[in-house]
Design brief:
The protein has 142 residues and is an alpha+beta fold. The chain has a single domain, classed as START domain (Alpha-D-Glucose-1,6-Bisphosphate, Chain A, domain 4). The chain is built from 2 helices and 7 strands, in the order E-H-E-E-E-E-E-E-H. It has a 7-stranded antiparallel β-sheet, with helices on one face. Strand 6 and strand 7 form a beta hairpin.
Length: 142
């Protein structure tokens, strides 16, 4: 299992940053991917139990929200996808930092194929960095 964490300070209050990243249905408004709610959550539309399809064209994955701690963290796990992945999970943590928010985005994955660890780490870092970069850009433009 490979795990990486990307940290970024976003110049917006924790409530605003959390709301943006918890709203997975709207990811496609600021990220270069499609996002669609497949099944609503138990307690709220995008809460625990919600399943979202995220992808690029026909290639995509379904992720299930497994924990939401408002303005603190969101955890999800891969449910299905066309990727050679045995297991994949992610956690986004939010910490107030003055008027800004420190966001830690961690991903862990176990591939079915023998791929060098550094290559896996690099791919995960690119994705988590891009995700937070695009979120920061969206909030700066708001």
């Amino acid at each position: 299992m490979r795990k990486v964490t990307t940290r970024r300070l976003i110049d917006a209050p924790v409530e605003t940053v959390f709301d943006l990243l918890a709203d997975r249905e709207n990811y496609s408004t600021y990220l270069p991917l499609t996002a669609r709610l497949v099944r609503p959550g138990v307690d709220s539309r995008q809460g625990v139990g919600a399943i979202h399809r995220l992808g690029l064209g026909p290639v995509g994955v379904r992720e299930k929200i497994v924990e939401v701690r408002p303005e603190q963290s969101i955890r999800y796990e891969l449910v299905t996808g066309r990727l050679p992945v045995r297991e994949h999970s992610g956690e986004i943590s939010f910490v107030p930092h003055g008027a800004s928010t420190q966001v830690d985005y961690s991903m862990a994955t176990d591939l079915k194929l023998p791929v060098p660890g550094l290559l896996v780490d690099g791919a995960l870092r690119v994705f988590t960095f891009a995700m937070l970069w695009f979120a920061n850009r969206k909030l700066r433009r708001a």
